[in-house]
Amino acid sequence: MGNWEYILFDFDGTIVNSEEGITKGVAYSLKQIGIEVTNLSELRAFIGPSLRYSYREFFGLNEEQIAKVIATYHEYNHEKGMLECFPYKGAVELLQHLKDAGKKVILATSKPQYFAEKILERFDLLRFFDFISGSGLDGSRTDKAEVIAHALEQCRITDLEKALMIGDRKYDVMGAKATGLRCVGVLYGFGDRAEFEESGADYIVSDVAELEKLLLGAEEENFRL
Length: 225
Known about the structure:
alpha/beta, 8 strands
């Protein structure tokens, strides 16, 4: 219990609440091709999966349109979106406690690595992470399983029983399962219990305090599905 050596974190919805920046960025990018979205809550589904998948799945855009909206989304993110987010309550303390306990902390996000690192630097969180695995600005390595696999390979993690993935959407669970990891679903992000149960999460926690108990305490069975 709590003996995981490598802790892999999703970013949006797990470390930081980035709803404002992501939804405003998506709305801005869609407006450039004539799609007006006034209710930003309708765009919360973009938080978690890759942008390419989301634009295609939720708006039926073709490849040419996707390339254009992703470019304008990155433009918005660079100018404003990176500032429109904040760490979840208790996240900074949790990261510090994990480092104090000798854990290897890894970021595994479908968000472009460039933006993830910039946001971590802004909140002085980069120092807690031993490795950052994200997607490329060129659209490479956007699938969550690819992101996790890259982190495992680069960190030379071969004993998968010692590694645990933490995320707030089914894509985190699916990516973890595809790479042989167990996964924790956090309810304080943008997913829900039904989503985690259907996708097969191993554990579910309600808030950061419960997550810390799971990772560092002796209460594993309390959060197991």
